[in-house]
Amino acid sequence: MSRNLILGTLLTALFTGAALLSFLWTPYDTGALVIAERLQPPSAAHWLGTDHFGRDILSMIMVGARTSIAVALVAVGIGMGAGVPLGLAAAARRGGWLDEVIMRGNDLIFAFPSLVIAILITAIFGPGATNAIIAIGIFNIPVFARLARGAALPLWTREFVMAARVAGKSAPRISAEHILPNIANLLIVQGTIQFSLGILAEAGLSYVGLGAQPPVPSWGRMLADAQTMVALAPHVAILPGLAIVLMVLGLNLLGDGLRDRLDPRLRVVRA
Amino acid sequence: MSVSIGSKYPGESRQGRDGAAPRLLEIDRLSLHIHGRQILDDISLEIAPGEIVALTGESGSGKSMTALATIGLLPPAAETRGALRLGGADLLGLSEARLCALRGREIGMIFQEPMTALNPVMRIGDQVAETILVHKAMPRAAARVRAAEVLARVGLPAERVPPSRFPHELSGGQRQRVVIAMAIALRPRLLIADEPTTALDVTTQAQILDLLRDLVREERMGLMMITHDLAVVSEMADRIAVMKAGRIVEQGETRALFREMRHPYTRQLFEASRHRADLPGARAEAPLLRVDEVTRRYPGRRALFAPAPGLIAVNGVSFEIRRGERVGLVGESGCGKSTLARAILGLEPVQAGEITLDGMPVYSQGRPDPSVRRRVQVVFQDPYGSFNPRHKVGRLIAEPFHLLPDPPKGATREHAIAEALTAVGLQPAHAESYIHAFSGGQRQRIAIARALIIRPELVIFDEAVSALDVRVRAQILDLIADLSRQYGLTYLFISHDLSVVRGITDRVLVMRAGEIVEQGPTEAVFDRPGHCYTKSLLAAAPSLPQPPGGGESDAGQPEAR
Amino acid sequence: MLSYALKRLAILAVSLAVASLVIFLVVEVAPGDPASYMLGINARPDTVAALRTELGLDLPKWERYLAWIGGMLQGDFGTSYTYRAPVAQMVTERLWVSLPLALYALTLSTLIAFPAGIYAAARRGRAGDIGVMGATQLGIAVPNFWFAMLLVLLFALKLRWFSAGGFPGWETPLAALKALTLPAVALALPQAAILARVMRSSLIDILHEDFIRTARAKGLSRRQALWRHGVRNALIPVLTILGLQFSFLLAGAIIIEQVFFLPGLGRLIFQAITQRDLIVVESVVMLLVFAVISVNFLTDLAYAAADPRLRAAR
Fold first, then answer.
1. Any chain B CB within 8 A of the CB of A267?
2. Cα separation of B274 and B231, whole Å?
3. Per-residue confidence (pLDDT) for residue C280, from 0 to 100
4. Staple B288 to which of B323, B547, B553, B559, CB 3.0 to 4.6 Å?
5. Any idea which architecture B50-74+101-273 has in CATH?
6. What is the model's pLDDT at position B405?
7. How would you list the strands of the sheet with B37-47, edge to edge?
8. Which of C7, C214, C219 sits opposite B117 (nearest CB)?
């Protein structure tokens, strides 16, 4: 196993583990406000200190990981679930009207960055984690659709697909049986990348108040709250950010490591 | 502008004065390892000015690596021993900077794939001029003039192909001419050509070979020519070195080498190159496949306001194949032969005409009819691309069962798989392996097994042996002939390679620009071509010399006829 | 080339039309009536009705859509419900902050990424490459608004080289540029990390192409082949990313403006959301989408300029 893969797996496991653990146990209750203990630096009692309401930052980060991972994961699921079939269909009907419609639709979604989608949704339904999921998820659709189509197109001219057509198999069946397994690695790698981008996007949306609403802890909100306190107690602003960086870094390393491992062509290049 | 070349390499002038044969390139006991693996083993070779020396052998024999070693472009991990002298000076010890000064100026190189050998975003004139400019051989304006001259010399005069063209505006043959122009712009003393015509059509190949021959004679360059094609070698080379597994097994003057063929490997290559399969006699039965006035048009790219003119790939083609016949379809790339094959397979709709099998149309109401389709199977060209790498061989060859209304299951299915594998000379146990475990030749056998498994009547071979080395190709052709005898199959054999078609078919169709220009019994067409296009194809195709022991003019003919 | 540009232009027009329709319909389904929202809960129904007429809310949907589009084409973006001021004027003022910020960041990111990417590709596998790749790995993991907070902490609060936020206006160009510097750096670095990686991998792909070998056989050194034949070809995929980056930068600018209290589009749109000033939201979103689509159009043209195959093919 490569160093990337090990480090990436460890970091991802660490945060996922912390998020899962937070369902059962956190060092302190994140709902309890203890004003007397506000803005304490890291100590034996509070390993990562406390915020301006006296809440334990470690506990907040653990519960925040839950929000981040949930939002990003569902958003990737939406992107893959809708994008991959669309991309495969476009590739199967390459050059036809269906391909044209799907690709132009993709271009159109690309014109709405996820923040803009979030703004539109929030303007109508008000802010919330669900809206963040939808906004990031919609933006993920064209990413996966383009990727799937681009990877599937050269496969359609390959002779093993021709052979399947000679055997009378239909386009959807060939897509499922021959195309999808051959682009799965690529989709997995892109999935980890979109997952990490989703975490960043969720943090950004929560930071500007379009994502998860209080009292649900989220990393972006913690940073927004810490902003005015940054001179007084820098750790309140630094630590949640560090959590984001490590989580995203872990996912990216995992993606790189998986790519090197799954794609023999790339492994040869590295050798 | 430049320093006299002779002064840089005292060795050459000395040898010249001594009156000994002037040696331009001297490869002296060259060995090459990459990551500890031996690639070249004790290679010794010499090339004199004005001499064409061919390196030949099957893939993996080390011929391309010898070329790369000579021009100093080996991969970084390469370790060499021995000496490689150009005009007496050893190139192996030279610094990268000295090598750069040498490449393009003293040694030029031409590569196999003209479609990708040129920078797509740079004008061809500039690419030729770059050779001159990078060596600071002339001022910019003079370099442009010289570039235009060289392009004209290789057959691309400015009035027909201006130097301001981009590579994508040129055909494959024209691009190869540009690559040659870049290589000879500074009149190097040594030219290396690595499979320079392998990617080209036979008529283009003949033109490029003529051009190379003329250049070598005129400019007194030495030419190291690398090719797997013995026929090309025999027509081009003054001397030949036959390589196998990193060694030169035999080398000598061309005619002498073909006369003597001391090494068994040379003889094997020679025999395999002129191999004719032993076909059973053709039966004249009722027509099986009938292609009637078939036309296949591709719509042009839709422009903004008007539809662009389309491409007519197949234009009103008619022919029939009788049951048990082996019919060849020859033509150059882009002539429409593969499109025609796909139409017969029901993979592409036709705009006009009808394709019927035993009187039943392949298409009914615009959709391919499965009951007709299952009677036709295909073997493709690329032994590496025609299988899904993720499935086991058993599943791969059973795929055509999908065409049957009631596909066999369980033991019947296993039995059919085992039978198909055995028929093509493999073991039933191979069904459990993945495709990457097999060599190119074995993969073509598996492809044939896949085509046979549902007992088709017509099998289409689309360039099915073109990617194989000659000895493997001969074995596969024998297998194909054998299967035709055993199963009474009908073949449509598509190839650009005339000699292959000649050896495996009873009748041949010659296709050009979407139309069939000539058809008839194979031997008759090859011996007395009627159409001028067939004549030019046959004239352009390089041929092997007569076999040693001479006399028998028809040694290649199967006796069993 | 001309027909290619015309075709792209047609796509641009259609995309804009569809996007505007989508935005209009989405805002239409928004619950709540702007007129009653503006006047408060206690407003009398006839006052609300009068305001609805004044705002044109009682007209049929398609008429309002056409009026909105027609107005925008003439530079009239409507009137803000809350401020009772022309939206066009409000947006123009804010654009003078957001647009320079995005362009500043784009310039910085290109200036950092291109040399870094080319350098790393040229020294592939060696220490320099590993260093650059490590830095970019970190760069893409850092959220830009958090990075912005760190910059404020270090350069504004500790070192006091820059102010922590605010914008003095373009009357004093140098001061304005200075105020935009920290935000631009915060925006640019993460984007530069992505761009550098794309540049590197695209260049490495190109260096495996046959024509690089041809160039080496002509006598070009590794370095010459990289610069003369590699970089220009590698630029073609990089251009796509550069086009995409602009939309990310514009969106990112909206967030970064919050960190530095910059009076840009971001501030405007968040105020508008809290006040349910939908006409402002609608217009700003349309403007952002317009910017993204036009930049994509320009990218397509740049693509064709860089690649002669595209020019001819269509």
1. no
2. 9
3. 87
4. B323
5. 3-Layer(aba) Sandwich (3.40)
6. 87
7. B37-47, B25-34, B78-86, B89-90
8. C214
Most confidently modeled range among A47-51, B135-139, B548-552:
B135-139
**CATH assignment of the domain containing C235:** 1.10.3720.10
All partners of chain A with 3 or more CB pairs under 8 angstroms: B, C
Task: Tell me how close the Cα of B88 comes to any Cα of chain C, in angstroms.
Answer: 20
Q: Do C232 and B118 touch (CB under 8 A)?
A: no
Q: Which of A99, A157, A159, A265 to mutate to test the interface with B (most CBs of B within 10 A)?
A: A159
Summarised one tens digit per residue, pLDDT across range B325-374 is 999 999 988 889 989 999 999 888 888 899 999 888 988 777 788 888 88
- Residue C262 counted as domain residue: yes
Give the confidence band of B447 by pLDDT, cuts at 50, 70, 90: very high
CA distance readout (Å), A135 to A72, A74, A110, B19, B149: 11, 11, 12, 84, 61
Average of per-residue pLDDT across B26-39: 93
Evaluate whether residue C153 is within a structural domain.
yes
Closest-CA distance, A108 to chain C, in angstroms, reads 6
Q: How far apart are CA A26 and CA C14, in angstroms?
A: 53
Question: Which pLDDT band, with edges at 50, 70 and 90, does B22 fall under?
Answer: low
Confidence of residue B558 (pLDDT cuts 50, 70, 90): very low
Check for a shared fold between B50-74+101-273 and B288-299+310-540.
yes
Following DSSP, what letter does each residue of A150-179 receive, concatenated?
HHHHHHHTSHHHHHHHHTT--HHHHIIIII
Does the pLDDT value for residue A37 go beyond 80?
A: no
Asked whether residue C19 is assigned to any structural domain, the reply reads: no
Q: Which residue is it, tokens 């020019």?
A: C311
- Of the candidates B370, B380, B402, the beta carbon closest to that of A162 is on B380
C273:A119 CB<8 A: yes
Q: Is residue C54 part of a domain?
A: no
pLDDT in tens, C95-138: 899 989 999 999 999 999 999 999 999 998 889 999 999 999 99
Cβ–Cβ gap A182/B380 under 8 Å: no
Q: Where are the domains of chain B?
A: 50-74+101-273, 288-299+310-540
Which chain C residue shows the shortest CA-CA distance from A248? C141
Interior CA angle at A119 toward A113 and A120, to 5°?
95
What ipTM is given for this predicted complex?
0.87
CB-closest option in C6, C10, C308 to B121:
C308
B139, HSE (Cβ side, Cα atoms, 13 Å): 2
Q: Is C175 on the interface with B (CB under 8 A)?
A: no
Q: What is the pTM for the complete model shown? A: 0.84
| Total number of domains constituting chain C | 1
Nearest to C95 by CA among C226, C314, C287, C296: C287
Kindly report the number of other CB atoms within 10 A of residue C56's CB atom. Answer: 13
Contact list in A for residue B373 (CB cut-off 8 A) is 166, 168
Interchain contact A163–B (C-beta under 8 A) = yes
- Mean pLDDT for C64-75 is 86
CATH class, B288-299+310-540 region: alpha beta
The angle, 0 to 180 degrees and rounded to 10, between the axes of the packed helices A234-262 and A219-226 is 150
Q: Which residues of chain A neighbour C254 with C-beta distances below 8 Å?
A: 115, 208
